[in-house]
Specification:
Helices cover about 55% and strands about 10% of the residues. It is of the alpha+beta class and about 210 residues long. It folds into 2 domains: about 80 residues, Glutaredoxin; about 110 residues, Glutathione S-transferase Yfyf (Class Pi), Chain A, domain 2 (Up-down Bundle).
């Protein structure tokens, strides 16, 4: 059985758990990270030298980096609907996943610890304001894409792109600042709320 190491409050662990649920894969999960089992041990670093979660164990195969794990799980389950086999369709899903992991994630690097975690080291109001502008800009890009597709992030069907972006938008919505109106994103978020796995691991009260 697949084993996922990482605490369920982690946004990156939750995207992996959500993918398992959507793919119909059996798995177990063990809490690692701050407040739980340490990732700073030699044993954990032997699995992931970055000492970060999540880590996937599939028998003797070890994988880290959450988006890579999601891709592996979709392939393992034979779920071409989540990650198509056709090269162009696959690339269309993956470029939204990569954008989420780079531009979108970078936008909240200062804002989230400042406004949600209340970290006193993140108290530069100019940096907070700049981060909010960039975060809203990224959500605006997604809104434009959803206006074009009229459905899901990468096109007419639900894919891994919606999983990774769904968690990012949930975090955006739960961070306390004034949010612009993005109707296509709101409609898409309501569609996500119809999926039981999103309610369990996405819109579950955890940013």
């Amino acid at each position: 059985m697949l084993k996922i190491l990482g605490k369920t409050s982690s946004i990156n662990v939750r995207k992996v758990l959500w993918t398992c649920e959507e793919a119909g894969l059996a798995y177990s999960q063990e809490d690692y990270g701050s407040g739980f089992a340490s990732t700073q041990t030699d044993a954990f670093r032997a699995m992931n030298p970055n000492a970060m979660v999540p880590v996937l164990l599939d028998d003797d195969f070890i994988l880290w980096e959450s988006n890579s794990i999601c891709r592996y799980l979709a392939r393992k389950a034979g779920r071409d609907d989540l990650l198509p086999g056709e090269p162009r369709a696959c690339a269309n899903v993956e470029h939204w996943m990569d954008w989420q992991a780079t531009d979108f994630n970078s936008a909240w690097r200062y804002v989230f610890p400042a406004l949600v975690r209340k970290n006193p080291d993140y108290n530069d109001q100019n940096a907070i304001a700049a981060g909010i502008r960039e975060w809203n800009h990224c959500v605006g890009i997604l809104d434009q894409q959803l206006q074009r597709t009229g459905a899901w992030a990468a096109g007419e069907t639900f894919t891994l792109a919606d999983i990774v972006l769904g968690l990012s938008v949930n975090r955006w919505k739960m961070t306390p600042f004034e949010h612009p109106d993005f109707p296509a994103v709101e409609a898409w978020f309501e569609r996500l709320n119809l999926r039981p796995a999103f309610l369990r691991y996405g819109n579950n009260g955890t940013p």
